[in-house]
């Protein structure tokens, strides 16, 4: 179980780093994995701790993330994540 927890933490950290990748495509794909961590209503405590610790940075980042993208579903998902992170 401990290995699973460490893997989850590592995966979350990796996705957070990939959100800043120089490739817009990698950023976008990382966003879709990242949103699973944020949207999970039963987040493991260690995942919630990482998100809380990075809350302000994540909010600042997400507010300007791919703002040029004309995709209503993406915009809705991004706004949903912003609200979820604000509520941590």
Briefly summarize what is shown.
This protein is mainly alpha-helical and 88 residues long. It has five helices and no strands.
Can you characterise this structure?
This protein has 88 residues and is mainly α. Helix content is 76%, strand content 0%. The protein has 5 helices and no strands. It is globular. The model has no long low-confidence stretch (mean pLDDT 92).
The major sheet is characterized as: none
Average the pLDDT over all residues and give the rounded result. 92
Report the C-alpha radius of gyration, rounded.
13 Å
Beta-strand content: under 5%
Helix content class: over 70%
Number of strands: 0
Globally, the shape reads: globular
Q: Measure the end-to-end span.
A: 25 Å
In terms of structural class, how would the helical and strand content be classed?
Answer: mainly alpha
Q: What is the ordering of alpha helices and beta strands? A: HHHHH
Domains (count): 1
Q: Give the uncertain stretches in residue-range form.
A: none
- Helical run tally: 5
GO molecular function: protein serine/threonine kinase activator activity
Pfam family, one: Mo25
Family: Belongs to the Mo25 family.
Protein name: MO25-like protein
């Amino acid at each position: 179980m401990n290995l699973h927890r460490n893997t989850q933490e590592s995966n979350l950290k990796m996705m957070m780093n990939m959100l800043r990748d120089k490739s817009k495509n990698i950023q976008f794909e990382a966003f879709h994995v990242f949103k699973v961590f944020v949207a999970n209503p039963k987040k493991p405590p260690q995942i919630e701790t990482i998100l809380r610790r990075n809350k302000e940075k994540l909010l600042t980042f997400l507010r300007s993330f791919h703002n040029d993208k004309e995709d209503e579903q993406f915009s809705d998902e991004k706004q949903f994540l912003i609200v979820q992170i604000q509520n941590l």
